[in-house]
Structure formats: C-alpha cells, structure tokens
Amino acid sequence: MSLSRKDLTGLIDVSKDEILTILETAEKFKEINQREIKKVPTLKGKTIVNLFFEPSTRTRTSFEIAGKRLSADTINFTASASSTTKGETLIDTVKNIESMGVDMFVVRHYYSGSVKFIAENTRAHVINAGDGTNEHPTQSLLDLFTIKEKKGRLEGLNVAIIGDITHSRVARSNAWAMKKLGINLKLYGPNTMIPKDYEPFGCTVCSSIDEAVEDCDVIMMLRIQLERQGIALLPSLKEYSKLFGLNKDRLKKAKKDAIIMHPGPINRGVELPSLLADCEQSVILDQVENGVAVRMAVIYLLTIQNANQKLEA
User: Is 186 a catalytic residue?
Assistant: First the structure.
C-alpha cells in the first residue's frame, strides 16, 4: 500500500480510497504500539523535521513518537529559537534545512495555505500538522480511526461537531473527509462562529444544541479559538457554556452508546464539564493514543518507495 502523492496538505483533495488505506495501515501500526518493544526499522536512515511555528503538545509529541517508532531520525524545530526571528523567510528556512538531507517536513503554521506553499517549494515530503484555520488532516484521520474502532463502521453514522466551527481546522478537515465517507454531519455553534458558506461540506447546520445532539452516534466538542479571533464573538464564557456546552441532560438526547470526542486542548467547564470529559463515553484519550498509529501510517505511506514493501517486525 502507498499513497499516490508526495504530500498530505489537506483532505479536500484526498480520495475515499486513500483515506481508507491510511486507516487500514494505522490498524497495523497500532498493534506495534501495543508491543513491549514499540519500534520497527522500516524508515531507518530517513530524517524528519517537525517544523512548528505554533505551540503544540499532542500533535508535536505524537509526530515525534511516530517518527521514532519507525526508526527515522526526528528533529524538532523551534521557531522562537531560529533564524526566522532575524528576518529569514519561511522558504529560505525550509531550503536551508532541506539541504542537510531532510526527507520529510511536518509543518504547523499560523497562516492558512502556508503548508501547501512549503510543499510546492521543496523536494521533501510535507505533512500538514495544522495551518491557520484551513486544515488539520491527521487530526481528522485519527478522529475517523477512533470512530471506526468504537463503532465498527463509518458510513451512515450521525456525527455532530459543536463549537467554534469557523476557526477550526479540525472541523474543516473532518467535514471534507466525512462527506466522502458517507457520514451524516451536523454542525452547531454561535452564529458568529458558523461559516457563511457551508454547503460545499455537505452538512446540516442546526438551530439548537438539542437538534445537533439528537440521535447522534458521535458528539465532537470544540474549544473557542480565541487566538484566531480578531474580535470578541461571544458575550462571556459562562453564557457560551450555558448555550453551547454539552451536559448530562443534553447527552441523553443522543444515542445511548454515543461517544464524546474532543481534539484538545479541553477548556473544562466551558465546552465540556469534567464529568463528561472523563466519563466512560469519552474517547478523548483514545484519540490521543490513536494519533500515533495514524501518523505512523501517513509517514510510512508517503515515504515508502516500494508499494509491496512489508512492515518488518
């Protein structure tokens, strides 16, 4: 198995078959992650640079672990300690690092479209780890992997994404992917945080949180992304929690076996109370665990040269 592309910059142009290939490959890597020795020599000799221009805990650590478990040399780049603070351009930074024999860049950047721009200007493989409000493809893939793992299928499921939709790259990647996989997607959030043009995503925008949650198999809560909002878009966090947060009574409107998801970080007491964030229906930590396997799969599928190459124990 392999992907017929050099980079993964988003899911808007990734086919259903490619998504399923990644998820199937991730299943094999999850088995490796459960061994006593969690490492394979598959990418020994390859070099991966995590090029992060925004703060990150889960994504950056997950990619670093994924690369190391595939035996690749993984280097973390810190923007605040680099020549970008001296005026060096983004592409000059990439070109200089590429000249050291780098095989792959994993990039997080605060500008939408920046990762695609990098991919077009380097011979190395590029994976988007989140660019502005555009996309976060591997987060969507790990979400899908977790849903499939817990529900046994994807097609026909009812999924609600609730919160700051406009500024969420996670919501955007999930919308593109879920449409291709036959998932029924509902969105809900403050009017100031819902995209004006949502028709291309093939989803339904609800008028209340009760409507959004009703008969759902999956409820994905999002945090308010204050760092991407130029102006205040809500009166207060207390009011937001009251009108748009999930609680026990609202959860009862979903299916009895509905699962609760969140890409993190959680603002406890705002979009989710601790009671629900830590309950049996919550799969938030499963998402984090599955992120390593999914990112191993993406790195592997982009870098293998021989489509028939097998995973080595």
Answer: no
223 is catalytic: no
Q: Based on the residue annotation, tell me whether 58 is a catalytic residue of this protein.
A: yes
Instruction: Single out the catalytic residue among 5, 6, 16, 58.
Output: 58
Choose among 74, 128, 84: nearest CA to 106. 128
State the angle between helix axes of 16-33 and 58-69 in degrees (0 to 180), rounded to the nearest 10: 70
Interval 131-186: pLDDT, tens: 999 999 999 999 999 999 999 999 999 999 999 999 999 999 999 999 999 999 99
* Beta strand segments in 4-81, E: 47-52, 73-78
Domain at 255, CATH number: 3.40.50.1370
109 catalytically annotated: no
250 a catalytic residue: no
How far apart CA 118 and CA 134 sit, in angstroms, is: 15
CA distance 159 to 143: 11
Q: Compute the 3-state secondary structure of the chain and give helix, strand, coil in percent, each to the nearest 5.
A: 40, 15, 45
Q: Could you say which of 85, 86, 123, 256 is catalytic?
A: 86
| Mean of pLDDT values over 291-311 | 79
Answer yes or no: do 31 and 116 share one domain. Answer: yes
Q: Out of 46, 108, 180, 250, pick the active-site residue.
A: 108
Mean pLDDT of 251-263: 98
Shared-domain flag, residues 130 and 142: no
What's the domain range around 217?
137-283
Q: Is residue 90 part of a domain?
A: yes
* Structural domains of the chain, count: 2
- Mean pLDDT calculated for residue range 86-100: 92
Catalytic member of 46, 69, 136, 295: 136
Whether residues 28 and 154 fall in one domain:
no
pTM to 2 decimals? Answer: 0.93
Residue 151 sits in the same domain as residue 268: yes
Residue 131 lies in a domain: yes
On the question of pLDDT at 313 being above 60, the answer is no
Same domain for 181 and 258, yes or no, is yes
Reported as a pLDDT band with limits 50, 70 and 90, residue 28 is very high
